[in-house]
Design a protein that fits this description.
The protein is an alpha/beta fold. The protein has two domains: 2-13 and 72-202, HAD superfamily/HAD-like (Rossmann fold), CATH 3.40.50; 16-64, no CATH class. It has six helices and six strands. The chain has helices at residues 14-24, 51-64, 76-85, 102-115, 143-151, 178-202, and strands spanning 2-5, 89-94, 123-126, 137-140, 155-159, 174-175. It has a six-stranded parallel sheet, with helices on both faces. Strand 2, helix 4 (102-115) and strand 3 (123-126) form a beta-alpha-beta unit. The longest helix is centred in the last third of the chain and has 25 residues, at 178-202. It is globular, with a radius of gyration of 19 Å. The two termini are 32 Å apart.
């Protein structure tokens, strides 16, 4: 199967990398929340920044080599490795374009993936549109991307993060850890195998 993975918020702790860059240049902004990671999508507002300033900080942080480095989320490498060992294709689609040019983010992402110990991906795509390439199943943290993937016919699982649970319970398919996604992938594969077997049996003439 073509198994899709988002990076930021799923396999990578983007908020932490931004914190580290700000701290490195002495611009901590007096972080207003005590949590170890942002708890809302526009977390930069809690740091006293508007959207324009935040984007510039991200450009500078990517150029400086802080953003998109280290900060692998728990179980991320193990989960991707298990999916790869099961014989599935690893399809990574991520919305990264920070830096002087988009190539800054792209090269940093490739180096981060290899340095973190992930198995080789089969495809790596940079786009805000997670439906840009076909996938059988996908894991996301952004509500809008989840909805678009589901509308496109892709089985999607939303990994619970503070910023996608603010509105309370909903009927989206959710998981708590990326390792849970491994089980969802396996379940999907089993269903497809059973469906194929049923089809073969139906076509047998007795």
């Amino acid at each position: 199967m073509r198994v899709g993975f988002d990076l930021d918020g799923v396999l990578f702790d983007f908020g932490k990398s931004v914190r580290e860059y700000l701290t490195s240049i002495g611009r901590e902004y007096g972080f207003k929340d005590d949590k170890p990671e942002p708890h809302t999508w526009n977390f930069f507002e809690y740091w006293g920044m508007d959207a324009k300033e935040f984007v510039q900080v991200c450009h500078d942080g990517a150029d400086a080599g802080y953003i998109f480095q280290n900060n692998v989320r728990p179980n991320a490498v193990a989960a991707v490795t298990l999916v790869k060992k099961a014989g599935h294709k690893i399809i990574v689609v991520t919305d990264r374009s920070f830096g002087t040019t988009p190539s800054v983010s792209e090269e940093a992402t490739k180096k981060w993936w290899k340095a973190s110990g992930f198995p080789d991906y089969d495809e790596l795509h940079f786009s805000p549109d997670k439906t840009i390439v076909p996938t059988d199943i996908f894991v996301e943290d952004k509500l809008e991307n989840y909805d678009k993937l589901m509308a496109a016919g892709t089985e999607c699982w939303l990994i619970n993060r503070d910023w996608n649970t603010e509105g309370g319970p909903d009927d989206r398919q959710r998981i708590n850890d990326v390792m849970d996604y491994v089980y969802k992938v396996h379940n999907r594969w089993q269903r497809e195998q059973f469906s194929e077997l049923e089809s073969q049996l139906t076509n047998i003439s007795y």
